[in-house]
Amino acid sequence: MRCSLALLLLAAGAVAVQASSGRALLQGSATCPISGCKDANSCIYNSDTRRWSCKACVAPLVPNSNRTACTCVAGKYRTSNGDCTNCPKNFFCPGNGAGKVVCGNGLITAKRGAVSKNNCVNPPGYKYVKTATTVKAEACGDNTYSLGLKQQPTCNPCPPGFVTDPDNNAGTHTSAAVCLAAPGMYMLGDTVVPCPKGEFSDSFGRNTACTSCESLFGQGVTTATTNSTSKDQCSWSEAGFALVDDKGKVILGALGTNPAQVVAGARPCPQSYYCPGGDPAVAASQPTKCDTDLTIVGRLWTEGEGATSDEDCVAPPGWARSTGTTVVECASGTYKSTWDNTAACTSCGSGVWVSNRRSWITATDAYSQPTKQFKVRGSSESCYIQPGMGATVSHDADGNVELKAMVCPANYFGITANKWGMVATPCQACPANTRTGFNSAPAQYKAASYYTTADDMDTAPNTLSGLTEPTEKLTRDGYYNVTACYTKPGYGYYSGAASICPMGYYNAGDNREPCTRCPNGKSTFFEGSTSLADCMAYAAGYGKVGSAAALCYTGTYNDGSSEVCLPCPLGTTTDVTGATLNANTLSGNPVDTFCKLCAPGYGGSSATECATGATTAAKLCQDGYYGSPSRTGSDTACATCPTGRRFTYTYTNDDVYLPGATSRYGANSADDCIADFSQTVDGASYLPLTLRSAVADVVSLRGCVDACRSAGTCAAATFAYYVADTTGSGAAETACYLWSPKSNGAAGSGVALKTMTSTANSQSVQAQDMGTGIWTFYAKTGAPEPALTASGAVDITTSIPSGSLKLSECLKRCASDSQCAGANYAGLADATDPDSAITACFKIMTQTTASAALRSMIKADYTKFSPAMFCPAGQVSKADGSACVACAADTIKPMAGFAKCVACAADTYATADFTQCKPLAFCPPGKTLDSAVAANARFLPASCSSCAADDYKALAGAQACATCATSGNVNDAATKCAATAAICAAPLMLDPTDKSQCYIP
């Protein structure tokens, strides 16, 4: 009440003021008559006009133009609750209290909040039409469209060629998407083009391709023109095709002849018809026969289906078109492989070619059903040559290349059965040194008759006599198998070829047998022998033993000129028994022998380097190499010993030691290769030695081993990875100690140290720590050896039975003990005999304390692989091992080492230096061993002397001279008895000027 009274008082005051100036401010009124006026101070009464006005309205209202009301701004209208809201679409709101006004006449607004009629536009699919009295929207017509919303006075035309579907509803042409390709057209990029021939389109659309007739009816169906609008227009046939009805039958006549006949598709034009294609109602477009009877081979055919014109009607293979429609069959000896109108068939070639119907062609009816097959001479495969014939490349009179068929002449053979096809098939020459038609050549491999080009193939063939002249060819021509080729005399047959009978063999010939070997150990004096009578000499590779012949044993040979086998040069050997001359042997050998392999344990860059008296002296394989007995051919070098053995140690990171390899002189196997330094047991392993020689400034195991290797007397190296500080620096130190066994002890005493293989030896049947069986010996060490501690020398003498107390048994006991590094023995009776008795045996034991800082490596010394002395060539160790002495008579030792001297082979003798054996003298014909020398020929170079009077010797060798039957008839050379006539076996003939000799005519 207090508030209302105050307002009335204020209003009354305002009215009094206005009245004094011509306008009176209404005061004391309870309500402003203008709805939405902000407050009483904003609502003013004008007494002159007697109207109220409002100068400020409550937001969002604003005074109208004359301030008589509060209204919304343009683009908005006032709702029933007094708020302003955006003018809705398709209306405009001019403001000033006008409210919302509909656009009308089909016009719309693009968005809400329109402020005037100018915001009314045509909708999509319409145009904006303005008349004198009004504006309105009109729907776009055919082939036009409108995006609308822009007061467009006209609709947009479709692009050239595009149209709209006439069945579209009014106002639906709202974008270019309504512009389509008309029936019979399709879109190609931004344009429309007519459907090509054979395709159609039956609707409006934006299709980018037309529907092909082929997709509906199959290949061969097309339309008459382009721009087709219906599948019913797919009624024409393409060239080479015939229409078929709904039963799959070819329509051979005009379409519609049978009222029920409709096009259901097409198929390739039937064989022996041609189909030009086109309108099926036109006779010229319908399938047409090539000839009247298509089941007869002597007619014009088409090669297959799909012919398009009468030019495709041709003579089939095996037939030629002579004139008009006449065709004739190819005669025997000719063929025709093509479907064409060639007037003549092709000749197989010159000579006695024949051909036969061999190719098949098939006739089909109008529905592709086979009706008949015919055999024709339809390819070069119809041509053939017959058994006993060949075909060679030749030239006709004009120089053109052709194949000539011929009956194979004497000493040749042809094919074994008919050979079809025109392929060069020359007659095959009989293998070298064979021939046909002599003696008993088998008739079953010879053709008796042949077909000729004039023959009727259903009758018997002509005889060979009609094809070959002169008459002699009847015997030796026309063979068709290599089996008909028989050897010439003096030749043998081997694996399809004939070879001259070598010395020691013979063959009478005209057979297919190998040469017959002379009786065991006998031979001939020449190749090509034809009878047993020629076996008069000793065979190469054999020698006379007593009164019989026997094979030369390995390491000896005979070239056939001697009665005895000769030893191979020292350092070489043979790989077979019965060795003889070989044309490929090395000329550097002292004799041209079959001794072309290096003997086991020998080696060089060639076998000549293995042979005594050759380019270099005989070479035993040296330290670190071996010469295998399995080498063959040019494999003559000594092989490097393999390595790969690993010795480990667990004390520090200095774990793996990889040794080198050494071997004895003349080693002949990789099993002879041993590690040059070895560790008895992997892991912690050292020898408990009391006498040690320290080496200064060596800080590694390898350095310590190298020091032992350089020291000739060193037998083992022990490396200390840790010793107490001796310098006061506070750091741990290392040390290297070398051990050399005592060498001034009692004779017959010694140390034998175990050796290990140079490879991992994983395949060995023997444990790796058992050693190789090869020992490094140090003589006169005393027993027990003073350098060994009590723990390092274990006496096992009493554990060995007295009858078995031998060096070999002592070493065996150590080998079988994995911790035994060697043996210390005494009382050895014979240093050259490992089975010699001894008087004491101590095992040298390796210590294997896991935490020990000591590691011992034992050296293998190839100069000490025997308790005997290492002696030079020609000398051998004495039994007590104290000195070297010369080899005994008739024995040799070619190289330095421990080997014993070996005896020379029979019929050889040792040289004065006992390093090689040489053969006894081999005297030429007419000479024999001097009787004064023969007794001592084993030691002295033999000499030869001429045969005595009336004696002769025809062959070279060591045999004695023989006496001629008639005194005084020996020739000057003492090689024959001139008056003794030789008996010559065929084909040898007696020499008319020297009747003791035969010669090969």
UniProtKB/TrEMBL annotation:
SMART domains: Ephrin_rec_like
Record keywords, A-Z: Apoptosis, Disulfide bond, Glycoprotein, Repeat, Signal
Record-annotated Tyrosine-protein kinase ephrin type A/B receptor-like domain positions: 492-535
InterPro entries in the cross-refs: Growth_fac_rcpt_cys_sf, TNFRSF_decoy_receptor, Tyr-kin_ephrin_A/B_rcpt-like
Domain of life of the source: Eukaryota
Pfam families assigned to the protein according to its UniProt record, in alphabetical order: Ephrin_rec_like
Signal peptide: 1-19
Protein name (record): Tyrosine-protein kinase ephrin type A/B receptor-like domain-containing protein
Source organism: Tetradesmus obliquus
Lineage per the UniProt record: Eukaryota, Viridiplantae, Chlorophyta, core chlorophytes, Chlorophyceae
